[in-house]
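TOPIC: backbone geometry
CONTENTS: sequence, structure tokens:
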Amino acid sequence: MIDRLEKEVDVLNRHLAVFVLVWQAEPIGIVELSTRTDLPHHKVRYSLRVLEEEGLIEPCSAGATTTDHARQFVETLNDELATVIDALDDMKISESVELQSV
């Protein structure tokens, strides 16, 4: 169960790393993104597709660029992550709770 969550966090981290590079170096292509992130082209391509579906980037002749929606995403990202972190903290089982065997 937790393994799936860890994998999703890894994928999200990859998408965010690709997004930040596009944000900083736009326009930027797959080859350059792959070189800078040390990720294979197919993983970069997948992240770009996800980011495009989210409306955060768009393709252009020189690579990928951010959209107008990207600024709002950046401004709200930390708050949204904090909300998720709080929800995960609430899921912790307290050490003081005695677990009863079934």
Q: What stands out?
A: The chain has one domain: 1-90. The longest helix spans residues 2-25. The helical segments are 2-25, 30-37, 41-53, 68-90.
